[in-house]
Amino acid sequence: NGLLAGKNMLVMGVANDRSIAWAIAQSLAAQGARLAFTYESERVEERVRKLADTIPGSILLPCNVTADEEIEGLAAQIRESFGVLHGLVHSIAFAKTEELEGMFVDTSRAGFALAHDISAYSLTAVAQRLYPLMTEGGSIMTMTYLGAERALRNYNVMGVAKAALEASVRYLAADLGPHGIRVNAVSAGPIRTLAAKGIKDFNAILRQVEEKSPLRRTTDASEVGDTAMFLLSPLSRGITGEVIYCDNGYHIVG
Ligand code: 0WD
């Protein structure tokens, strides 16, 4: 039952119950998808396991996206458990906190490389190993932010990494389209999560969205969950290489 009945989907990036990936998982499960979750390290394993256990039939696998062999191991496990994969959710980003304040011009070589490795390259690294499992066609989605196209205060190197991520979405969509695989991004408004804690003056950003966005409210993770579900469902079959905003309209004003 549901739009995603009989579909196998992998969700990467759940750290806790506030994670956007967790909201996406709820929306996918509500439409009948069978889910696999990955966790970054033992540090979060137990927390993610408790969450995954609340979704019957789901499985849990380790994968730190900075290690090629972990991604290869993940692909092998997914092949074994699911055979065919239909959907992939990439909801992963990281930058050092010291790079998320002050001036972008002060970004270090190592900080730049790390932010791009985890937040941008990882999408290609996982798509590369998982698209061969999408033998019935598929949909890949990732999470981005307005800082990719505007120089937003404190977002700094993460904005540059998100720009690379959005460009990667277009190149991956061009490559994988002939295989019946779509690739898109959701650009979400700011949401209070673990990752958001790293961004300086996050409260001020939320306040501004509440005042200025056309719908006069901040983004709820469940709204992003449903937009992601749409992108992973056949309802969006004509959409690929796209960045869809789920931000209560904030990006069209001021
Ligand atoms: O306002 C926001 N929260 C927005 C977030 C607005 C627009 C976009 N996004 C994006 C983020 O940039 C990210 O790409 O959404 C995605 C998910 O972020 P989130 O849900 O806000 O944050 P969080 O719950 O922290 O999930 C990100 C997770 C990591 O969490 P922590 O906080 O432990 O770093 O990404 C995962 C990890 O679970 N992650 C990794 N996974 C595998 N390998 C790695 C890694 N090396 N590094 C981080």
What does this 3D model show about the protein?
Helix 2 (42-52) links the parallel strand 2 and strand 3. The chain has helices spanning 20-30, 42-52, 68-82, 109-130, 156-176, 194-197, 202-212, 221-232; strands at 8-12, 34-39, 59-62, 87-90, 138-144, 181-188, 243-246. It has a seven-stranded parallel sheet, with helices on both faces. By secondary structure, it is α/β, with parallel strands linked by helices. The protein has one domain: Rossmann fold (3-Layer(aba) Sandwich), CATH 3.40.50. Bound molecules: ligand 0WD. Ligand 0WD is lined by residues 13, 15, 19-21, 40, 44, 64-66, 91-94, 118, 143-145, 188, 190-191, 193-196. Keywords: Fatty acid biosynthesis, Fatty acid metabolism, Lipid biosynthesis, Lipid metabolism, NAD, Oxidoreductase. This is Enoyl-[acyl-carrier-protein] reductase [NADH].
Summarize the structure in short:
By secondary structure, the protein is of the alpha/beta class.
According to CATH, the homologous superfamily is NAD(P)-binding Rossmann-like Domain
Structural class: alpha/beta
> Using DSSP, what is the number of strands?
7
CATH fold name, please? Answer: Rossmann fold
Uncertain spans, ≥5 residues at pLDDT below 50?
A: none
Strand order of the largest sheet: 3-2-1-4-5-6-7
Termini gap: 43 Å
Mean pLDDT: 97
Rounded to an integer in angstroms, the radius of gyration calculated over CA atoms is: 17 Å
What CATH architecture would you give?
3-Layer(aba) Sandwich
How much of the sequence lies in strands comes to 5-15%
Number of domains: 1
Series of secondary-structure elements, N-terminal to C-terminal: EHEHEHEHEHEHHHE
Helix count equals: 8
Pathway: Lipid metabolism; fatty acid biosynthesis
Organism: Paenibacillus lycopersici
Keywords: Fatty acid biosynthesis, Fatty acid metabolism, Lipid biosynthesis, Lipid metabolism, NAD, Oxidoreductase
Binding site for substrate: 95
